[in-house]
Design brief:
269 residues, two-stranded parallel ribbon, Rossmann fold, 17% strand, seven-stranded parallel beta sheet, alpha/beta
């Protein structure tokens, strides 16, 4: 069985590929990449590196040819119209190439979300269902990297983690855990026609984040709400369901998930 991957030169895709190399021989993997020159490391490992560009539909079928499974990493474009067009090109090429199972990186709780990105992933999932190809939807939570944009360095310096008023909670996940889940699905049987909501088993709060900063830095940090505080992240969060949690990620990887405290320690290391 051969597995083709898109996005393997990106952060998530690269981690997935590393996990796959622990489970499969390099000769069983195909890296479909927009810039093959950026994947020389993978080629040196024995991978079949092929040119496949979401913006060049004609390049995709040949980059998938011979594979049984396809990891379809969602496009990084910031234009949702462009992203949908690219995704439809990938799905069409997968059909032409004879792909027998598509694993797609979607977004968690998309039916509860009200951002354009939720609509985009919903339309992509529907197109995959309509293709007739067996599928697995990996509905990834927002990455744990979000903590970098919540003023944690300023909090470490001042002793105060500031947020707007509100009962803020976060259901973010580690890229490493999400990558391991994807590798598990790609190398096991029995995941066809499944939708996995890949979140932590419980949410974390800003009080927990303040404690994590305290532990990582040795400087006491507390969380305070300030009605005058401005941060684009907090304007976006109400349009996603950040309280939704599931056991799917934990069950897929079979080990404890990385926590917000783990991420804070990594940042301040």
């Amino acid at each position: 069985m051969k597995i083709a991957l898109t996005g393997s030169t990106g952060k998530l895709g690269g981690l997935i590929l590393k996990h796959l190399l622990l489970r499969r021989q390099a000769q069983q993997l195909i890296a479909s990449v927009r810039q093959p020159s950026a994947a020389e490391e993978w080629r040196a490992s024995g991978l079949d590196v092929r040119y496949g560009d979401y913006d060049v539909p004609a390049s995709l079928e040949s980059s998938f040819r011979g594979a049984d499974k396809l990891l379809m990493v969602s496009s990084p474009s910031t234009d949702e119209t462009v992203r949908l067009r690219q995704h439809l090109s990938v799905i069409g090429a997968a059909r032409q190439a004879g792909i027998r199972h598509i694993v797609y990186t979607s977004i968690c709780a998309l039916e509860r979300g009200r951002l354009p990105v939720h609509k985009l992933h919903g339309e992509t999932e529907e197109a995959i269902r309509g293709s007739g190809i067996p599928y697995t939807f990996l509905r990834n939570a927002y990455y744990m990297d979000i903590v970098r944009f919540l003023g944690i360095r300023e909090a470490a310096a001042s002793g105060v983690l500031v947020s707007p008023p509100g009962d803020w909670s976060f259901n973010t996940a580690s890229r490493h855990d999400l990558a391991l889940a994807a590798a598990t699905v790609l190398t096991e049987e029995g995941h066809e026609y499944q939708t996995y909501e890949l979140t932590p088993r419980r949410t974390w709060s800003l009080d927990e984040l303040a404690r994590a900063i305290t532990e990582a830095t040795g400087r006491t940090v507390v969380h305070r709400r300030d009605p005058d505080y401005q941060n684009d992240i907090y304007r976006m969060l109400p349009y996603s369901d950040m309280k939704f949690v599931s056991d799917d990620l934990f069950k897929l990887i079979g080990q404890p998930l990385h926590s917000v405290a783990d991420k804070v320690r990594e940042i301040f290391r």
